[in-house]
Specification:
- By secondary structure, the chain is of the alpha/beta class.
- About 20% of the residues lie in helices and about 30% in strands.
- The chain is built from three helices and nine strands; from the N terminus they run βαβαβββαββββ.
- Strands 4-3-2-5-6-7 form a six-stranded mixed β-sheet, sandwiched between helices. A three-stranded antiparallel β-sheet has the order 1-9-8.
- The structure holds guanosine-5'-monophosphate (5GP).
Length: about 180
């Protein structure tokens, strides 16, 4: 599970994540209960699958769910800058109130790409949510509507977030340091 040249230091605890997920769910609830039809919650795979699953289970109002896949990192800690849709939605978003749920907004390129791609499909509204936000790493002026934790420009893993597909299963968020380069 853990190659010897990596160390993971605690960053955000399981309890703090649970509290924050409940707070975000209450905010989303207050918003989606005003819509005439159930809002469409979109999970951006792969990183947000655990956050998404926990978040929607705390929302009391009916939601619809769909999944899309996006990739910008490959097997590295730095965004390649090129965002690719790796899995498209199964449903149409025309006329829907979308809640777009991400694990982390870093450069902002992924969210910007997704919001623009979704807007072209003419939804009624798009609300963006992220568990983690790194505003200091932004390469554009993207501002997320609701974020859980604002963090510095550190590379974090766990709670769905990976490094080269590892560490997603950790129940907490940790900071990854590569002992061979740090
Ligand atoms: P952005 O396009 O905003 O630079 O990055 C968005 C995506 O990059 C996230 O959905 C996530 O998959 C990945 N990412 C950004 N920062 C981190 C990080 O600190 N740790 C991990 N594991 N992935 C990150």
């Amino acid at each position: 599970m853990k190659p010897s040249n990596f160390a993971i230091s605690p960053y955000i605890s399981e309890d703090d994540i649970k509290t924050k997920v409940k707070e975000l769910a209450a905010i989303i609830d207050a918003k989606v209960k005003n819509f005439k039809e159930p809002a469409l919650a979109l999970c951006v795979l792969k990183g947000s699958f655990i956050f998404f699953a926990d978040l929607i289970r705390e929302v009391q109002t009916d939601l619809k769910c769909d999944f899309l896949g996006c990739s910008s990192y490959g097997n590295s800690e730095r965004s390649s800058g090129e965002v690719k849709l790796t899995l498209d939605l199964a449903s149409s978003v025309a006329g829907q109130n979308i809640i777009l749920i991400e694990d982390i907004v870093d450069t902002g390129l992924t969210m910007d790409f997704l919001v623009e791609a979704l807007k072209a499909r003419r939804p009624e509204s798009i609300t963006t949510v992220t568990l983690l936000d790194k505003p200091s790493a932004r390469k554009n002026d993207f501002k997320v509507d609701y974020s859980g934790f604002t963090i510095p420009d550190d590379f974090v893993v766990g709670y769905g977030l990976d490094y080269a597909e590892q560490f997603r299963q950790l129940p907490f968020i940790g900071k990854l340091t590569n002992n061979s380069i740090n």
